[in-house]
Amino acid sequence: MEAEPSNVPLTRSFVGRLSAYYSANVTARVSGVLVKRLYTEGSEVKAGQTLFEIDPAYYQTVLNTDLATLAQDQATYVNDRVTADRYHKLLPIGSVSQQTVDDADAAQRSAAAKVKADEAAVEGARVNLGYTKVTSPITGIAGQQQVTAGAVVGNGTTDAGSGGTLLATVEQIGPLYVNFTISAADLITLKQAQSKGDVALAAQNKTTVQVILPNGTPYDQQGTLDFTDVSVNATTGAVSLRAQIPNPQHQLLPGMYVSLDVDLGQRNDVYLVPQQAIQRDTVGSYAMVVGADGKVVRKDVDTNDSHGSDWIVTGGLAAGDRVIVTGVQSVREGMLAKATPWRGTDKDTRLSQSRPVQSSGGHRAGRS
């Protein structure tokens, strides 16, 4: 076959782990006895939907008490305001002193402030009473409950640094994230190749990801790279990447390990050579080529990746080189060979053309 430069996709294989697009813990924000669960475990829930109920009796009592205090202080404020207004009318005719008016004004202001404080207390009591109905913060799939009805749950305020009791977890799994890493050395190699023009790396949002399921079958929808870390992990020496994968049927699940074929861009001016044409020995990889004089020449090549059934040769070949594909085992460097075009779809014909022939120089030669 005649070697011709071409551009091929730059694909790398990785192993990644799936994670939820959104994941939220449902926790108790007030203390009390858990009365009941109001959702079906493993079902889809909506944001704001009530999932659990905590006994509201105590918080209802607190609210009622604060409402009563507010009403009492509002009555006091009205009385103090009326008194202050009366004294202001009596001051010009000398029936009351200026000190009496000032004291009445101060009492009115204190009563008004007390009403404001009571209103804040009532609002806080209403908030705490509302927290007895534990709602979902996001829309997603609600998992298994972590605390059964009858258990005492807390808001964690008595333990510095701790949160409330975990009741359940809600995860949004359509779409999903898949997290994987690339070694810093490989990333540097790709960047250097890009600067030389050997490869053209795709933009982040144009880099496609094909997921291979644990049973070996390809997932029917492609994902897109959406995050590349700007630092190298000091422990692993790798850079973290993340892709977003559509998951409308919820076929993929968080925590699942999958294989990934990531299309990072394309390789420029490389040669696709059938795998059977590339040989290896202690020196390295090589191909046998029929030169212009009809003699077989060995050419050491650089290849460490494949595309379909072909090796990707990045160095060692030149455009127009006639690479021997079949009959390679029958030739030796320096021998004369009569080359005929390789027909990749006709295996039987190729095998018959591999028959050794006698050259004029007495050497054994083979057809390619």
From TrEMBL:
Pfam families: Beta-barrel_RND, BSH_RND, HH_MFP_RND, RND-MFP_C. Signal peptide: none annotated. One of its GO terms (biological process) is response to antibiotic. Residues 338-368 are annotated as: Disordered. Residues 175-265 form the Multidrug resistance protein MdtA-like beta-barrel domain. Residues 270-329 form the Multidrug resistance protein MdtA-like C-terminal permuted SH3 domain. One of its GO terms (cellular component) is plasma membrane. InterPro entries: MdtA-like_b-barrel, MdtA-like_BSH, MdtA-like_C, MdtA-like_HH, RND_pump_MFP. Transmembrane segments: none annotated. It is found in: Cell envelope. Residues 68-132 form the Multidrug resistance protein MdtA-like alpha-helical hairpin domain. Residues 24-159 form the Multidrug resistance protein MdtA-like barrel-sandwich hybrid domain. NCBIfam families: RND_mfp. This is Toluene efflux pump periplasmic linker protein TtgA. The lineage of its organism: Bacteria, Pseudomonadati, Pseudomonadota, Betaproteobacteria, Burkholderiales.
